[in-house]
TrEMBL record:
Residues 85-238 form the DUF4328 domain. Keywords: Membrane, Transmembrane, Transmembrane helix. Coiled coil: none annotated. The keyword Transmembrane applies. The chain crosses the membrane at residues 45-66, 96-119, 139-156, 216-236. This is DUF4328 domain-containing protein. It comes from Streptomyces acidicola.
Length: 256
């Protein structure tokens, strides 16, 4: 059965709490990663991240419009339309496409900075709630996003540890929201890179049309990922705020 104190690890065979909680109750124990952790409110940062993610959604919607315009023009050219309006439409679509990319990049960079500050804060808070429930050191909460390959799963693993540690003392929450957000984010990143490569290599109108269609798909998935990220950030922020206000967890009575 689960430990009746932390509700994260299995209890020892002859007891009702886990070995970690038993050791913590017997004597002061230093945090497993070597530095002390203190609670800091994530509410302000969480709201700021949610607002910035909303800006990312707006930028993606602008990009989707630009994608549709470019896709339409590329399709007309691929179909053999040689009217005088086509070159003008193509130039306008290209300018709109470039502008949308710049807006997306600016929104993403601003959001990423604040998100990483928030993510590190909730990671430290989670260590206060449960010092022994983390598989990666807190530095990976930031660094894990920048290391190639491992950035496809390290942040999710850290997010799940934070989520579990921040859940109610007696009722751990489902991982469905975290997994949905992470799946959408990974799909959008992979699709975006493949689409960008296809667009750079495209030379003919049909190739450009297909590449823009791929970019359109990536932007739509990115909207989904950003919306799920907003829900993840607001939910986790609320979980930590509620848990901090509830005070230390108490052992749960266990029936015979």
């Amino acid at each position: 059965m689960l430990c009746t104190r932390c509700r994260h690890f299995d209890a020892t065979p002859d007891g009702v709490i886990c070995a970690q909680c038993a050791a913590a109750g017997a004597a002061p124990v230093a945090p497993p990663h070597g530095r002390g952790a203190w609670l800091s409110s994530p509410v302000g940062l969480g709201r700021a991240v949610a607002v910035l993610l909303g800006a990312v959604v707006a930028a993606d919607l602008f990009a989707i419009w630009a994608d549709l315009v470019s896709y339409d023009v590329a399709g007309d050219i691929a179909d053999g339309d040689t009217s005088a309006a086509v070159p003008r439409r193509a130039e306008s679509a290209d300018s709109l496409f470039v502008a949308a990319g710049s807006v997306q990049t600016a929104a993403l960079l601003c959001t990423a900075v604040v998100f990483l500050v928030w993510f590190h804060r909730v990671r430290v808070n989670a260590e206060v709630f449960h010092p022994f429930g983390h598989r990666k050191k807190r530095g990976w909460a930031v660094g894990g996003w920048f290391v190639p390959i491992v950035n496809l799963w390290f942040p999710r693993r850290i997010a799940l540890d934070i989520w579990d540690a921040s859940s109610s003392w007696n009722a751990p929450r489902s991982h469905a929201l975290v997994n949905a957000w992470w799946a959408a984010w990974v799909i959008s990143q992979v699709a975006g890179r493949l689409a960008s490569t296809a667009y750079r290599r495209a030379e003919t109108a049909p190739e450009i049309e297909r590449a823009v269609g791929q970019i359109l798909f990536a932007d739509v998935v990115d909207v989904v990922a950003a919306v799920l990220a907003i829900l993840f950030v607001l939910t986790l922020t609320r979980m930590q705020d509620t848990k901090a206000r509830s005070g230390p967890g108490a052992p749960v009575p266990v029936s015979g």
